[in-house]
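Hi L., both proteins are below.
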Amino acid sequence: MVVVHPALAASVRSIVVYDVDFAGPGVHIGMPSTDLTFVLPLDQPLEVSWVGTGGPRAVGWSSVSGLHTRAAAIHHGHHQRGIQLSLTAAGARALWGVPASALAGQLLGLDDVDVRLAELPERLAAAGTWEGRLAVLEHALLDAVRRRTRPQPRPEVGRAMALLTRGVPVAAVADDVGYSRRRLNTLVHDEVGVPPKTYQRLARFSGAHARMRAAALGGEVSVARIAADSGYADQAHLAREWSDFAGCSPTEWLRREFPIVQASGDRDTTGWDERSHRATR
């Protein structure tokens, strides 16, 4: 994980450098969350499409996507390198000058969001080290933030989204910030592109996904325990949500993302070895 510059902390949730070896060509599943995704591949362009749509792949040296309720299919060969950023909803305004709702459900390139950053992939490729690439990226992001003068959303909208992320019921959130549920629905949708209930579901799912990955790295996964810890009624509830957002069951997702799997059908516990990879964090 890369340390984010303080001036970018409100906009950039995380910056991850990835350098991954795969057994062969395949598809990585990009999971939905409450963050926006910004990817800058090296060596070969990124090929992305939406899971289950059968639609065309977006191919390019950059990928920007807003909130989405369908997983992304990231097509890869034997090796992938690049930089992936998770952006906050506020980061869309700060970096691109638009609310996150303008990017919701879309797969875009830098040309679509900021033509002044169109040459960033070439500048990253020209840098000889990861340290140099990260310095180029940080400078470009800081410059983009300084160029923007778009107003930020009202504080109560940000508070509402924070409460929704923590699992507070929508009606209680509306009362807390002093809006009717209808008004809250409009404001949240205008800001991020999904209604409050969907935003809340995305937040809960994102937490479950993070717990699933952490448990995987520990060597054993209890889907039932993750469901309980993430606020789902039971394992079946998590499985339905996982299928809705990821396009497959939790067990199938584990098999796809971790090819060396000692699977146990749909039982609660699945153990496996971590796939061979190289990664800089």
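That was the first. Here is the second:
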Amino acid sequence: MTESPRSASTLSLSARLAGGLVVLLVVGGVVLSLATFAYGRAAAREAFDRLLVGAASSIAASVSVIEGAAVVDLPVSAFELLALAPEDRIAYQVRGVDGAVLTGYADLPQPPAARLVTSGPVYYDAPFTGEPARFIRLTRRFAERDLSGTIEVIVGQTLRERNALAEDIALNALMGLAIGGAAVVLLAVLVVRSALRPLDELALALAARDPQDLTEISTAVPREVASLVGAVNGFMGRLERQFDAMRNLISDSAHQLRTPVAALRAQADLATQETDPDRRDRLIGRIHDRSVSLGRLLDQMLSRALVIHRIDSARREAVDLRDIALDIVEAGDHKLIAPGAEVRLEIGETPVIVLGDPLSLGEAAKNLFRNALAHGRAPIVLGADVKGAQARLWVQDAGPGPSAAVRAQFGDRFVRSAAADGRSAGLGLSIADSVARAFGGHLALEDSAEGFRVAIALPRSGER
């Protein structure tokens, strides 16, 4: 079942672009969100780690040696630094050179043993009172007479404030990304609609046309749409030629068949009323001759309509003109059209290749061959050869060729009215000329000592 145009339609270009941008922004947003959260966490960690190292350094600097013992005088500045994160809980511990806790929490988690190889600050994560926390271990070396060894300072802080800062950084970045993405989608839709406006104008121009108007579209369009307009113009040109072929067929049928049919009817009426056998036989002979001529005329008219239809619709392929000439002679139609007429075939061993439609070329050659049989003088020669860059399919007879009046009207569909004698000398030439022009060639009329030759000259193809 054929779908209606509405059900067969697809999403508009604007919707496709908007959908594609939304998908792109969503995927990109997810990636950027992960990257933003990672950056926020790194930035927050670096900022709060500086608070830890500042507090630990202040505490380590406050350790002094009095009478051979390490004494800690906790500085207020250290706790002021840590107080910059009011929502976090803090912990500290100071150990003497013998490992005993001098002040602070006695059960703080210790850094992993693998990190103790460095002499600088050591950062590590560990739980503190059931919450994740960040710690720093800092050492101070004493080498005095009364005290020699390393004092260890550990300062820790929970992660509430730094997690809040990381989320704030990420959310601010994502909010800017969302606003920017929405603006990009809106701007892209507006740009696409503006860019596609010529297509709407083209559609309106086509809708406003008369159904019989198949002339080329002259509406100014962007360069990207020009190929579409060219394809539409080419399609309408082919449609116009098809319509012309149908109009010509109807017109020719009405014009060329009315008189012969009327003459046949009149002669048939006379034959039915004639009592003299001899005169009745002559009338019957005329009716037969008229019928044969009328059949030939109908055959040529239908052949011309078929050829014009196939010129635009048939796929072009490599054709050897020698095969067409051979098929026409082997068909033996000349034995019925002109019994006893001498017919010869002249083809060589060199292929005569062109790009065209075998049926159209065959119809054109048949019409030339039948014209020669009907109007020419035997012997009739049918051949194919190569002359320069042209491949030629030709028919030759021993007569002088058409009259000057016929040649002056070369290419017209009818040279003599079929109403006069039921015959048309120009329709066959018109068919051959149409086929030759359709495939980039021409029809050549040549006089020589051997007689008159009509050749369909086409560009030669290198295909084998």
